Amino acid sequence: MSTLVLFDSNFGNTRKIAETVAAELGNDATATPLAGLGQGGLEGVDLLVVGSPINAWKPTPRTQEFLDGLGEGSLRGVRAAAFDTRVRLFIHGDAAAKISHALEKAGARIVARPRGFIVEGREGPLAAGEVEGATAWARSIAVAAQGSGPSGTDVTD
Ligand SMILES: Cc1cc2nc3c(=O)[nH]c(=O)nc-3n(C[C@H](O)[C@H](O)[C@H](O)COP(=O)(O)O)c2cc1C
After folding, report:
1. What is the reported pLDDT for 91?
2. Whose CA is nearest to atom 29 of ligand 1?
3. CA distance 106 to 95
4. What pLDDT was estimated at residue 33?
5. Measured between alpha carbons, how far is 127 from 120 in angstroms, rounded to an integer?
6. pLDDT of the residue at 93
7. Distance separating alpha carbons of residues 111 and 16, to the nearest angstrom
8. Which of 28, 54, 79, 102 is surrounded by the fewest CB atoms within 10 Å?
């Protein structure tokens, strides 16, 4: 299975979660910054995870641009999951759910509930336990992606 974990990150916290998720999803999984995604970068991907910091209640502009560029049906046959990072005690906005809906709209099968990971301030660090939380979340993705049927277990939020 070809696995790609795409992320945007201003201060490194979302990158850290993306790298943790990729490490848990296996040897062929790579964490790639959205800025480094070339043309055709999604070709052959079976499992796609997308993560973004919340910026002003939404995914970052770069993440939104990526999502807006997904053609209808372009992710058909792809299993997917989404996460965000957010500040504790902020009015969050739910970027993870927005990303998840956009991936689903492009035809992906969502295999895990969208997940928010808490940072302690704008620049981080990640709150205690969130790296371990990312490992557990990734494990649930791996199990669901291997689940019954050609597209794995369906999860709706
Ligand atoms: C311009 C800007 C807007 C932000 N808006 C929100 C917000 O609406 N809700 C929230 O929970 N956090 C907000 N944050 C905090 C980010 O979520 C936090 O900086 C991010 O999770 C850190 O991840 P990173 O290190 O990968 O950039 C904002 C941060 C910046 C820089």
Report:
1. 67
2. 55
3. 17
4. 97
5. 6
6. 79
7. 21
8. 28
Identity of the residue numbered 48:
L
Q: 3-145 falls under which CATH superfamily? A: Flavodoxin domain (3.40.50.360)
Residue given tokens 């990971």 in the structure block? 117
Residue with tokens 């490194």: 12
Domain boundaries, the chain: 3-145
Q: What share of the chain is helix, strand, coil (3-state, %, to 5)?
A: 30, 25, 45
The pLDDT tens digits of the residues spanning 74-99 come to: 999 999 999 999 997 766 779 999 99
Q: In 3D, which of 52, 138, 141 has the Cα closest to residue 99?
A: 52
How many angstroms is it from 73 CA to the middle of ligand 1? 30
Classify residue 120 by burial, with Cβ atoms within 10 Å: 0-12, 13-18, 19+: middle
CA distance between the termini of the chain: 25
- Provide Rg for the chain, Cα atoms: 14
Q: Kindly indicate the confidence band of residue 152, based on its pLDDT and cuts at 50, 70 and 90.
A: very low
**How many angstroms is it from 53 CA to the middle of ligand 1?**
5
Helix (H) / strand (E) element for 133: namely: helix 130-145
122 lines ligand 1 (CB under 6 A): yes
| HEC string for 99-142 | HHHHHHHCCCEECCCCEEEEECCCCCCECCCHHHHHHHHHHHHH
